[in-house]
Specification:
Blueprint: H1 2-8, H2 19-36, H3 40-57, H4 62-80, H5 86-100, H6 108-132, H7 136-140, H8 142-169, E1 171-173, H9 176-203, H10 205-230, E2 236-238, H11 243-261, H12 265-285, E3 292-296, E4 305-308, E5 314-317, H13 328-339, E6 344-349, H14 355-358, H15 361-367, E7 369-375, H16 383-394, E8 398-401, E9 407-408, E10 415-420, E11 442-447, E12 450-454, H17 460-470, E13 478-480, H18 492-498, E14 502-505, H19 518-526, E15 530-533, H20 534-537, E16 540-544, E17 549-552, H21 554-557
Parallel strand pairs: 5-6, 6-7, 7-8, 12-13, 13-14, 14-15
Antiparallel strand pairs: 1-2, 3-4, 3-16, 4-5, 9-10, 10-11, 11-12, 16-17
Helix pairs in contact: 1-10, 2-3, 2-4, 3-4, 4-5, 5-6, 6-8, 8-9, 8-11, 9-10, 11-12, 13-15, 15-16
């Protein structure tokens, strides 16, 4: 909640060690070495070594390395008595990072860090010229000038990063410019006070505790500022931009400021309006075939699959885990649905009542309109399963129990068939059943020439039962790999029957079960299948027009 407040208030940079922190460290180190009596060449050299140490100490994140590289160039210029061009410094920093790791170019941190600094370098001189054009009473007053320059810095960084922020985080802070006017000076005071606390405590613990109390007060002030700004009504806007829209926005920003420099505002506005109209016309009237979209949500160690059918109906299969500190329904699925303005779930499906699949169901049942709930009738006496059943009864929801051979209607032209459970796995008395995984509800969705098999946590025993029941019907283009890629599921025999071209594994990063198994990954590769994992890709989004499956970046899809 606190991190979201910082994001909503537009001051998330306060929590990230970056340019401001590194610049402060460089100033302190250089001052200390100069005070000791080192010549400026030695003071600069030791300062650079100290900055490199700081970069490794803080984990070597991209913004830190960028800031350290730039600071080192500035300090190094003192040694050779050279003037520094900010664009060249920025280019050298980018080159160092990209020579080290070229793939870093596509990292959000790399792009945001350089966009912010580039925006300051490009826009601040323009804003300063505007300030110089203000009446004398504003320019000559020290307080008003500080406020104007602070607003210019905040506005420049906001403008430069806004398209990327909307693209990656789907959120733009409206109050950020105002909140930053207080947050940036407060951060400087907080860093200085924290440093004084360390030195004071080294001399005397009582004196250190006095300064520590002041540091704590500043911390609470920063948290209060973030909480206030982050919870303001209409203080931020949910927004989604695609790649082309991001590029168009940057081109528009450049066009506006360059033409403004030439005094051609009318041409600038006319060009932007014309480009906007053409872009909207292309988007609005481009013919598109009806599509089915399947989103495997990144909810950690568990399953949650949201399907949007071509007839505008939707289905959610499982709802992720419930733990002592996180409810996947509240933390991941509800924000995902609300971002798309979806407040009605047509069909809610529970594959089986393990907590990593059913955990978010109670929250969704309480906060969304649900037309019907479907499961395999598997019973267990866990607290979360009891809560789920109680809500179905108390809300008087339509509840259907399905088994192999059943079909689900209402999603035309898509056809949904149930392949499991059957035979010995039918839940006649499941309260004492040893393995709920093998009672998973398995669905196959067919849309035109495309199909997807969703297996829940079905293990090898359940797969063998499905092979006996209908081995030919198991064939599907896409497979949601059973039991998060565990080695007790997705046998090579089963994979040959399904023969998918795309496989999706839903699992949490660094999970305690070591899912997925290297054996499963090897078997999928052996049959020529392309595998996607939520622990590596984030949400995995597939779209079908009934002819081909298309893998879509979740950033473009949503």
């Amino acid at each position: 909640e606190l991190r979201n407040a910082f994001v909503n208030a537009g001051i998330m940079h306060v929590l990230a060690i970056a340019g401001l922190h590194v610049g402060f460290a460089a100033l302190i180190l250089y001052s200390i070495f100069s005070f000791i009596g080192f010549r400026k060449e030695w003071a600069a050299s030791f300062t650079i070594l100290g900055l490199i140490y700081c970069a490794f100490l803080s984990g070597g994140h991209i913004p830190v390395i960028r800031a350290v590289t730039m600071a080192a160039i500035f300090v190094g210029a003192r040694i050779f008595e050279r003037k520094v061009d900010l664009y060249q410094v920025l280019a050298v920093a980018a080159s160092v990072l990209l020579l080290w790791r070229p793939i870093m170019f596509f990292d959000a941190g790399f792009q945001l860090s350089f966009a912010a600094v580039g925006g300051l370098v490009y826009l601040i001189p323009k804003f300063e010229s505007w300030i110089e054009g203000l009446p004398e009473r504003f320019r000559s007053n020290v307080f008003s000038r500080i406020v104007l320059i602070s607003m210019a810095v905040s506005l420049a960084a906001t403008i430069a990063t806004l398209p990327l922020t909307a693209y990656y985080f789907q959120k733009v802070s409206i109050v950020g410019i105002v909140v930053n006017l207080a947050a940036v000076p407060l951060l400087c005071l907080l860093m200085l006070e924290g440093l004084i606390t360390i030195f004071a405590a080294a001399l005397n613990m009582w004196l250190g505790s006095v300064f520590a109390a002041l540091t704590n007060a500043l911390c609470q002030a920063m948290i209060g500022l973030a909480t206030w700004g982050g919870n303001l009504r209409n203080g931020y806007a949910d927004i989604h931009l695609g790649v082309w829209m991001v590029l168009w926005l940057y081109a528009t920003i450049f066009l506006i400021f360059e033409l403004q420099r030439e005094g051609q505002w009318r041409k600038s506005v006319a060009g932007v309006l014309l480009a906007s109209v053409l872009g909207l016309c292309i988007i609005r009237w481009s013919p598109t075939a009806p599509r089915m979209r399947v989103t495997f949500l990144d909810i950690g160690q568990g399953d949650a699959t949201f399907i949007q059918f071509s007839n505008e109906k939707n289905m959610l299969i499982d709802a992720g885990p419930l733990t002592t500190h996180s409810d996947a329904g509240e933390r991941f699925i509800a924000p995902f649905l609300e971002h798309q303005r979806i407040y009605r779930i047509n069909t809610l499906v529970v594959s089986h009542p393990h907590s990593d699949h059913i955990g978010g169901m109670p929250y969704l049942l309480r906060h969304f309109t649900v037309d019907r709930v479907i499961d395999a009738g598997v019973l267990t006496q866990s607290e979360i399963a009891n809560d789920y059943r109680h809500l179905i009864d108390s809300l008087h929801l339509l509840h259907q129990v399905l088994a192999a051979g059943a079909t689900l209607g209402g999603f035309d032209p898509a056809i949904i068939t149930v392949f499991h459970p059957s035979g010995e796995f039918l839940p006649s008395d499941t309260t004492a059943h040893e393995n709920l995984n093998n009672q998973s509800l398995v669905l196959k969705i067919t849309y035109g020439a495309n199909s997807i098999l969703l297996t829940g946590d079905a293990e090898v025993s359940a797969e063998n039962q499905m092979e006996k029941l209908d081995s030919m019907g198991l064939s599907a283009n896409v497979l949601k790999v059973g039991h998060h890629g565990s080695d007790n599921a997705s046998s090579l025999s089963f994979l040959h029957f399904v023969h998918p071209s795309i496989a999706v594994i839903s699992c949490g990063r660094n999970n305690k079960f070591s899912h997925p198994s290297p054996v499963t990954i090897a078997d999928l590769a052996a049959i020529g299948c392309t595998t996607f994992r939520t622990d590596q890709e984030g949400a995995v989004v597939l779209e079908s027009d009934g002819r081909v499956w298309r893998v879509v970046s979740w950033r473009d899809a949503y």
